[in-house]
Design goal:
With 112 residues, the protein is of the alpha+beta class. Helix 3 runs parallel beside helix 5. It is built from six helices and four strands, in the order H-H-E-H-E-H-E-E-H-H. Helices cover 52% and strands 15% of the residues.
């Protein structure tokens, strides 16, 4: 019962986890919030590897605060699903979005 209640809580957007998320997004050109077992996360990472673009990746399933990070990302981006991909501080989408942007050439332009 407790976990259902905690998931319904709004994210603390002024707490340390929100500060970590904002700092992480600002620190690197490409930032991916991911889970190790998620096929869409793998899909989001592939185009960056193909373009030889370095990225910072935070695997939420390997973090004690992963659920809270995900809640903060939900507040910032409008969805809690992973992956959540940011380029130059801007949210650009999830796995299928990144694949589509790679396929049509927009991703490379964003990284230039």
């Amino acid at each position: 019962m407790g976990s259902l209640l905690s998931r319904a809580q709004p994210a603390n957007m002024s707490g340390p986890v929100a500060e970590f998320v904002r700092a992480a997004i600002a620190k690197d050109k490409v930032v991916i919030f991911s889970k190790t077992y998620c096929p869409y996360c793998t899909m989001a990472k592939e185009p960056f590897k193909k373009l030889k673009q370095e990225y910072a990746c935070y695997e939420l399933d390997e973090r004690n605060d992963g659920d809270e990070v995900q809640a903060v990302l939900g507040e910032l981006t409008g969805a809690k699903t992973v992956p959540r991909v940011f380029i130059s501080g801007n949210f650009v989408g999830g796995g299928t979005d990144i694949k589509k942007m790679y396929d049509d050439g927009r991703l490379e332009k964003l990284l230039a």
